[in-house]
Amino acid sequence: MTAFSREDIARLEAAAAVLLASPAHVTAEQRKEAEALFVNLQTNKFTCSECQILMEATNDSFVLFEISKLLGVSILREWKVMNSVSIENILTYILQYITERSELANFVRSELCRCCAKIFKRGILDEHFQSEAVLISKVDKLLSGQDLTMQVLGCDLMEATAAEFSSYWRITDVGITWDFHIRAKREFEKSALRNLFKLSLKTLNDLISHPALSSQHGLTLCGKFLHFAETILSWNFSSQLLPPSLSFHFDVAEATALRPPATYKDIFLHESFLPLFFEIHRKVRFNESLCTISLNCLIMLASLMGEVLTKQETVLGDNPPVKYLSAFMSNTTSLFSGGPLPGETSGLCTIIYKLITFHHISSLFHADRSVLQQFLSFLSHYSQSLTSTGIRLALVEDDYELIHSVSRLFESWLALLRGAARIQLSSDLLEPTFQIYSCFLKAVLSSPFGMREKLCSEDTIKDDINEQDDRVAYSNVLVPLGGFGSFAASQSFSVLFEILATLLTKFFSFLSSGMNEEVVNDWREDMHWILLIIGHTLASEDGDGSCQISPEVFDYCEDMVKNGSTDPSRSDGFLSLCVSGPSSVPGSVGVDPFIRITGLVLLWNVLDHRILGEYGINAVSPELMRSSIWCIRRLVAALSDCEQPEAPNDNNAQYSPMLSKEGEASSKIVKFALHRCFGAIQKFPAERK
């Protein structure tokens, strides 16, 4: 087909109208004929010249789209017989065609940009066509002017090129193999992608100081360049050896990291690089769509690692990781010092999580001292603020959206604690850690221990079999919280004991003076939460169910013995007294702090078991009973896991809280545990939780 009549064009346009028409206005036969016409069009081997003639002869968007696809295939088919001048002329024609037709549909415009991208990809391994030089020249020319329309086209061309080099396809009759795509992508990453990234950064830098940024067109342009930056920061670099399906992995999940090759070091470590992205976010954070893209960029930058942050031994005093983390922490603290906007909460928490957990913790602590202190202060205060808000929404309104963000912050802070312990900086984090821990206590407990809002009676007593236990629903928060309590054991243990003793004393008063349902429901909610917190603070549990006492708790208990505050010989008697179920909270002077909390938990289980046996299932809370049994099982298992010291009377021997196998308390606890479990099964035969 070498010539086209007006009738040929009219038939294509009519077929396009049929395909786009409502089914009510065309018959199935008409649609089938129209589809056959375009299928036949795609099977014909048109030349590039013929495609250009068709493009000039019609303004129908659908027809132009189909011809644009034909043009891309034609270029690849004729590549071997075309010289570099002819190829560049086609590029010039396509770009000029786009710029001269402002009314061109977006999907046609995108397909034409993709044609250009195919040319760049096909020529990147071809010596007779300087693909990279032509690409950079065309893009630079489009971006260097002050015409925003041309800059948009330049960005569209960059995005199409990046998408093309990250995609894998095969056309048998043009000689494109799978291996070609891999080699082309690797070659593209060496220099072309890097240069495109630099051009986009230059344009973004010009945009943030341009008055047009406040206009709708300026925001659109900024969004396009931000999206391209996000593409680069999410790029699946060949050195990562990831599957091709992850080439455009925009998911900013915790496992995703940015690992550019060493050739990109001058970009990422430039002193103006990070401030640029933070300044952009400062400008666009009130625009919901741009804010999301900008946050994604910051999230990926927080995970930067690999060759670009490798220390150069030849440069004295050079420490890229420390410099990068210092700059990132400084900019983060400055930008979010007043707190994030509602739509930024999740993104900010992910930024903090990646910044702390994706880098060597020693690099973080070797950052500028004042910057580090400001960042830790900001993180501590924000963690407390978000905890209060997130827990309130979850308890009162059943809105768990912020709980995941709280867990990210808690996991980040726990990573700081573990790192600080290795480099002897634990004392700096002791007070803020206990403040975060106390904030959670206040959020879940009612007055006088906390500030939990009054819950409806049906909320406190409901026990839907399909509803997750709080122990499961809040596990991502409770586990790191337990680490906080262990780290600050010298402060948290006394608070936990005081709250638990006060709650038990209040319960004894219920038994003697009667019970108000509303008060009892609040009390049960408090008891439920304090048991969950105690269980996670005093012991940790492995996947196989084995429980251990943390090293920090061991050290704290040992220090109490060494300074004469506690006497290990009193532990067995105190536990025996608690399991006998006294009518008041027993005295615990000189008793190991771990043992005395365990004793009170044991005492409550005894009281709860008695009430179940005497008054039946209506007198107890199944949820509280589950928490009680779970907590005492965890504590007793941890105490039983400890080994007997070889020389308990030796001042140099290491003390550890434990249950003596020969002690009176051990046998009593075993007997009670059997009665407790079988009693619960007998009274709640249908209980499945």
From TrEMBL:
<keyword id="KW-0653">Protein transport</keyword>
<comment type="similarity">
    <text>Belongs to the exportin family.</text>
</comment>
<protein>
    <recommendedName>
        <fullName>Exportin-4</fullName>
    </recommendedName>
</protein>
<dbReference type="InterPro" id="IPR011989">
    <property type="entry name" value="ARM-like"/>
</dbReference>
<dbReference type="GO" id="GO:0015031">
    <property type="term" value="P:protein transport"/>
</dbReference>
<dbReference type="GO" id="GO:0005634">
    <property type="term" value="C:nucleus"/>
</dbReference>
<dbReference type="InterPro" id="IPR044189">
    <property type="entry name" value="XPO4/7-like"/>
</dbReference>
<keyword id="KW-0539">Nucleus</keyword>
<keyword id="KW-0813">Transport</keyword>
<dbReference type="GO" id="GO:0005737">
    <property type="term" value="C:cytoplasm"/>
</dbReference>
<dbReference type="InterPro" id="IPR016024">
    <property type="entry name" value="ARM-type_fold"/>
</dbReference>
<keyword id="KW-0963">Cytoplasm</keyword>
